[in-house]
C-alpha cells in the first residue's frame, strides 16, 4: 500500500466571506428548528436535515480478521457497539405514502464502557451538489427561509438552485443520478451508504462505504417505510460490509471537490456492521429525537475533513442545542 496523504488543517479553512455567510445560515437553522414542529406538524422539534426517523437500532461493528496489519492499532477490540438511525433527508416530515429515496444511515460507534468513539452520518448518494461553500450556504439559507416563509423566499431559492447546476453536470453525478432513479423504489436496507466527504483516520484521510449483503430490494414494497423496517427486523438479521478508501493524492482523491467520486484508490474491507433481528429500539419518540450524530463529537482522529464538512460542526451544534432545549421541555410535560 503506498503512503497515504497526511491530514492538514488547511483543508478545513474557511474564508472571511464564508464565515459571514455561515453566521447568517446558523441563525436560519435555529429559527427553522424552533418552528419545525409546526412545519412538519409533529409534537416535537425536528432536525433541520434528515428530519424523519424511520427507525433506530442497536448494532455491532465486527472487525475483519484479515484487516491489513497497519490498520490494527485503530481496532484494539474485536467488536464495537453501535447505535444506528435510519432516516429520510427531507427537512420536513411528510406523512405521504412515498418519500423521496434520499436516505440516511447514521452510525454511533461506542467503546466497551459506552463512551463515544465516532459518529458517521452516511447517505445513499455518494456525491454533493456543489463544491462552493458560498453557494451551499446561500442555498441552505434560502431553503430554510422557504420552509419558514413559503413563497416570499422562492425567488432567492430558485436563483441559488440555478447557480448549483454547473457543478452537478459531471459524469460522476449523472451516473449516480441514473443509478438512484433505477433504485428509487428499492427497500432502504438494499442501498449502499457513503460518507460524502472525507474523514480523518489517524494522520490520514478516508472515505467510507457500506455495502449490504443479501437484502431483498423488493422487501415491503406495499408498506410504509417504518412498517417495512419493523417487519424486516422481526425476522431478519442485517449485515453490511464496511469498506474504506484512502486519499493518496488530491488529483485522484480530492478532499474539497465533493461532486466527483474518488478514483485509483482501492476499497479495503475493515469489517461488518450487523443489526440482529429484534434489535430495533422503541418507536421514534422524543428520546430518539434527542440523539445526536454530530461527526465533530468524535475522537479527534476520526473527525470530518474539508470545508463543506467544516460547516457541519457549527450547524449540528446549533441544530441539536435548539432541538434538545425544546424537546427536553416537551419531554418534561409528557
From TrEMBL:
<protein>
    <submittedName>
        <fullName>Catalase</fullName>
    </submittedName>
</protein>
<dbReference type="InterPro" id="IPR020835">
    <property type="entry name" value="Catalase_sf"/>
</dbReference>
Amino acid at each position: 500500500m503506498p503512503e497515504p496523504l497526511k491530514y492538514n488543517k488547511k483543508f478545513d479553512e474557511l474564508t472571511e466571506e464564508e464565515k459571514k455567510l455561515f453566521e447568517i445560515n446558523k441563525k436560519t437553522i435555529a429559527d427553522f428548528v424552533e418552528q419545525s414542529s409546526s412545519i412538519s406538524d409533529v409534537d416535537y422539534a425536528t432536525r433541520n436535515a434528515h428530519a424523519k426517523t424511520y427507525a433506530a437500532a442497536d448494532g455491532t461493528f465486527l472487525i475483519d480478521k484479515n484487516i491489513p496489519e497497519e490498520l490494527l492499532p485503530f481496532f484494539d477490540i474485536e467488536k464495537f457497539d453501535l447505535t444506528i438511525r435510519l432516516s429520510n433527508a427531507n427537512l420536513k416530515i411528510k406523512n405521504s405514502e412515498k418519500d423521496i429515496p434520499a436516505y440516511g444511515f447514521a452510525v454511533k460507534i461506542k467503546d466497551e464502557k459506552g463512551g463515544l468513539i465516532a459518529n458517521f452520518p452516511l447517505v445513499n448518494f455518494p456525491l454533493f451538489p456543489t463544491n462552493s461553500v458560498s453557494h451551499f450556504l446561500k442555498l441552505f439559507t434560502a431553503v430554510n427561509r422557504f420552509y419558514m416563509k413559503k413563497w416570499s423566499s422562492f425567488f432567492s431559492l430558485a436563483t441559488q438552485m440555478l447557480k448549483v447546476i454547473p457543478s452537478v453536470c459531471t459524469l460522476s453525478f449523472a451516473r449516480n443520478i441514473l443509478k438512484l432513479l433505477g433504485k428509487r423504489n428499492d427497500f432502504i436496507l438494499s442501498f449502499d451508504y457513503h460518507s460524502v466527504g472525507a474523514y480523518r483516520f489517524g494522520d490520514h484521510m478516508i472515505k467510507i462505504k457500506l455495502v449490504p449483503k443479501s437484502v431483498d430490494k423488493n422487501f415491503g414494497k406495499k408498506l410504509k417505510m417504518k412498517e417495512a423496517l419493523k417487519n424486516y427486523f422481526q425476522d431478519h438479521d442485517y449485515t453490511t460490509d464496511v469498506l474504506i478508501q484512502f486519499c493518496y493524492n488530491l488529483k485522484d482523491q480530492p478532499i474539497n471537490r465533493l461532486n466527483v467520486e474518488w478514483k485509483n484508490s482501492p476499497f479495503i474491507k475493515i469489517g461488518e456492521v450487523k443489526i440482529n433481528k429484534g434489535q430495533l429500539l422503541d418507536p421514534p419518540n422524543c428520546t430518539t429525537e434527542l440523539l445526536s450524530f454530530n461527526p465533530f463529537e468524535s475522537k479527534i482522529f476520526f473527525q470530518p475533513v474539508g470545508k463543506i464538512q467544516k460547516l457541519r460542526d457549527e450547524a449540528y451544534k446549533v441544530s441539536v442545542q435548539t432541538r434538545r432545549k425544546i424537546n427536553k421541555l416537551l419531554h418534561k410535560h409528557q
